[in-house]
Design a protein that fits this description.
This is Ribbon-helix-helix protein CopG domain-containing protein. By secondary structure, this protein is an all-alpha fold. The protein has a domain at 29-66. It has three helices and no strands. Helix 2 (33-46) crosses helix 3. The longest helix is centred in the last third of the chain and has 16 residues, at 50-65.
């Protein structure tokens, strides 16, 4: 049961606070539709979220290309 308060937070405020606690930041990119299709397919095949697919790909790229 939600707490009843005199000045309730909006859904946006609740979501922003939740993301801040988890260290999550919204980031938008424009990607080619083939790239988006690949991310979706990999997500479906692996059962991982699309965000996790992108995160792991960036980590692998960094490991191979950054000294």
């Amino acid at each position: 049961m939600p707490k009843i308060v005199s000045n309730p937070k909006t859904r946006r405020e609740i979501n922003e606070a939740s993301m801040a606690r988890r260290g999550v930041v919204n980031k938008a990119f424009k990607l080619h539709e083939d790239t988006v299709a690949l991310v979706k397919a990999l997500s479906k095949q692996t059962g991982k979220s699309q965000a996790q697919i992108v995160t792991e790909a960036l980590q692998m790229y960094a490991a191979q290309n950054i000294d």
